[in-house]
């Protein structure tokens, strides 16, 4: 038996002339939402944003209550 990559056939709600990146929200194999991304948009985790801030010279620390 061959190892095959699963394929998901989806329909997108974007203009036929669109070229670019699309963010998809998929639930149980069904596309629940799609958003075209602008050229200057970044998608990342909180860890990525912390690293970007630290490289820019900021220090990220939890707020101390009390």
> What spatial order of strands do you see in the largest sheet?
1-2
Q: Tally of extended strands?
A: 2
Work out the strand percent: 15-25%
**So what's the overall shape?**
elongated
The helix tally amounts to 1
Helix content: 10-25%
Indicate the mean pLDDT: 86
Measured between the Cα atoms of the first and last residue, the distance is 62 Å
Characterize the biggest β-sheet: 2 strands, antiparallel
Elements, N to C (H/E):
EEH
Rg (C-alpha, Å): 19 Å
**Poorly predicted regions:** none
Class from helix and strand fractions: alpha+beta
Give the helices and strands, then pairings.
Elements: E1 21-27, E2 30-37, H1 46-55
Antiparallel strand pairs: 1-2
Give short descriptive properties of this protein:
66 residues; alpha+beta; two-stranded antiparallel sheet; 15% helix; elongated
